[in-house]
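Weekly sync, protein design subgroup
Attendees: M.S., D.O., the rotation student, P.L. (late)

Item 1: inverse folding check
M.S. brought a backbone from last month's batch and wanted to see whether the design step gives back something sensible before we order anything. D.O. pointed out we never logged the input encoding, so this time it goes straight into the notes. Structure tokens as presented (153 positions):
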């Protein structure tokens, strides 16, 4: 799909406020409501817009500890990685899991938990018990400096 300036503006506005009304969106981008709605639907149908979500405040949910975990695997086989990825996807504390290069680790996993005790339980009772995990290095987030979710369009 070729994106013109209106499509890019729509994407930018929806990333800022996914609950904006079509009327307000149309006014902000300089289109009438009908063509604006058609463009939004086309962006959804093309798969560029994958969904809409509520952003939550972790602190108000008593999730005060965020950690980045570098995980090394014993073997680099598709089966080993598939098993790890299947298990890690099912842990609710996991916010993000990236297969990485250039480190002494195979994965970087971002988790959020209540406190250090909850982190220890997650690490020792769940993550290190996944078959193939041989090394774990944890870094704890002291504060977020940049916390963007919007993609540059």
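Designed sequence read out in the meeting:
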């Amino acid at each position: 799909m070729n994106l013109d300036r209106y499509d890019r503006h729509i994407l930018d506005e929806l990333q800022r406020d996914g609950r904006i009304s079509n009327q307000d969106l149309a006014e902000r981008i300089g289109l009438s409501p009908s063509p604006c709605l058609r463009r939004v639907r086309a962006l959804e149908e093309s798969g560029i817009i994958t969904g809409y979500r509520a952003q939550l405040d972790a602190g108000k949910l008593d999730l005060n500890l965020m950690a980045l975990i570098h995980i090394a695997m014993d073997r680099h086989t598709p089966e080993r990685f598939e098993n790890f990825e299947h298990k890690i996807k099912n842990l609710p504390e996991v916010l993000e899991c990236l297969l990485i290069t250039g480190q002494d680790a195979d994965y970087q996993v971002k988790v959020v938990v209540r406190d250090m005790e909850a982190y220890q339980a997650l690490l020792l009772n769940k993550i290190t018990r996944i078959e193939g995990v041989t090394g774990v290095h944890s870094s704890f987030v002291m504060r977020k400096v940049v916390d963007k979710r919007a993609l540059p369009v």
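Discussion: The longest helix spans residues 33-45. The chain has a mean pLDDT of 97.
Action: P.L. to compare against the previous round before Friday.
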